[in-house]
Design brief:
The chain is an alpha/beta fold. 23% of the residues lie in helices and 30% in strands. Strands 1-2-3-4-5-6 form a six-stranded mixed β-sheet, covered by helices on one side. Strands 7-8-9-10-13-14 form a six-stranded mixed β-sheet.
Length: 206
């Protein structure tokens, strides 16, 4: 499988297309805004979206859920603990700022260890709470989509409702820092990094 990054919205959320090269099927991960950019990338790649996955329920990651689902008919997947965030307007001022729409409810809820199939490839769900109760990371072949849990030389904020710094640190130590050093980290915002780089340079883990 391969991935493509599309930076969307005023908060520069990384939306990812995870693609099975053999079938051209793809999953849309965290369509936070700017659905036109997402649609353009899908059309240019001649891709077939089959799933929409949210790494967590914050509006800067879910703001284009409705547009993507209505256009492509993709079911929405999210961890059960964050599913209640969908289906209602949240963070109204931020939603207006991002031109985000309310998300349809989840079609399927996820749990730790679930395997999500995309064409002939797959992603494995790692429940990594702390930024939100239902935050997940998605482990592919040589890469992990870390949502807002782990960033280059930083970690996700924990001062939002449902956040927990002890949980966040535990999630990173037990679920992410146990991955091979060469594992590419694809975060929800900012540049890509690797587990090895974060092990050596992230001030949270010195």
């Amino acid at each position: 499988m391969r991935y493509e990054t599309i930076v969307v919205g005023a908060l520069e959320t990384n939306c990812y297309l995870v693609v099975c090269e053999a079938t051209r099927e793809c999953a849309v991960i965290d369509p936070g805004a700017d659905h036109e950019l997402i649609f353009l990338a899908i059309a240019e790649g001649e891709l077939k979206p089959v799933l929409l996955i949210n790494t967590h329920g914050h509006v800067d990651h879910t703001g284009a859920n409705r547009d993507v689902k209505e256009h492509f008919g993709t079911p929405i997947l999210i961890h059960a603990a964050d599913a209640p965030m969908l289906g209602k307007i949240q963070e109204l001022e931020l939603s207006l700022f991002l031109a985000a729409k309310d998300s349809p409810p989840a079609d399927r809820t996820l749990k730790d260890g679930d395997v999500i199939r995309i064409g002939r490839g797959q992603l494995r769900v790692l429940h990594t709470p702390g930024h939100s109760p239902g935050s997940i990371s998605l482990l592919g072949d040589g890469f992990v989509l870390s949502g807002d849990t782990l960033f280059m030389e930083g970690v996700g904020r924990t001062d939002l409702p449902g956040g927990s710094r002890p949980q966040l640190v535990k999630s990173i130590r037990e679920k992410l820092m146990t991955l091979p050093d060469e594992t590419l980290v694809l975060p929800g915002h900012g540049p890509h990094t690797t587990i090895g780089h974060e092990r050596e340079n992230n001030p949270e883990f010195e």
